[in-house]
UniProtKB/TrEMBL annotation:
Coiled-coil segments on the chain, per record: none
Pfam families recorded: LLG1
UniProt region (Disordered), positions on chain: 99-121
PANTHER family per record: GPI-ANCHORED PROTEIN LLG1 (PTHR31533:SF2), GPI-ANCHORED PROTEIN LLG1-RELATED-RELATED (PTHR31533)
Record domain GPI-anchored protein LLG1-like: where: 23-100
Bias type Pro residues, positions: 105-114
Organism the protein comes from: Sphenostylis stenocarpa
Name this protein carries in UniProt: GPI-anchored protein LLG1-like domain-containing protein
Domain of life: Eukaryota
InterPro entries: LLG1-like, LORELEI-like
């Protein structure tokens, strides 16, 4: 069933609006996943360990349903790794609340600022 925007109450539209993700997942290094999770026979042990290593530092953002971080991250994981859609959801399970991340996971540091050239630019 398709909904017309006119038939949806304004309060519902406001609740559906997602906040922009503060992490630019386009430029994050996916080598942790792509070097360990290889097809055509994807190993749950290797793929899930690599996925957790990559994603756990961003767990708070990825679990926040008010932003689009998870959607964007999975788009780039599937793009760069050429993984079938839903691979990690089907392989990686640790209970009804999803994967458990170590308490000490912290995001990787941001990339260094560009170096100035000799002209100060």
């Amino acid at each position: 069933m398709f909904w017309s925007l006119k038939s949806i109450p304004v309060g519902t539209l406001l609740r559906l609006k997602k906040v922009y993700c503060p992490v630019d997942f386009e430029f994050v290094n996916y080598t942790i996943i792509t070097s360990k999770c290889k097809g055509p026979h994807y190993s749950a042990k290797e793929c899930c360990a690599a996925f957790k290593e990559f994603a756990c530092p961003y767990a708070n953002l990825l679990n926040d349903l008010t932003n689009d971080c998870a959607s964007i991250m999975f788009t780039y994981i599937n793009l760069y790794g050429k993984y079938p859609p839903g691979l990690f959801a089907s392989l990686c399970h640790q209970g009804k609340n999803g994967l458990k991340c170590p308490a000490s996971s912290s995001p990787p540091p941001p990339p260094p600022p560009p170096a100035e050239d000799k002209n100060g630019v």
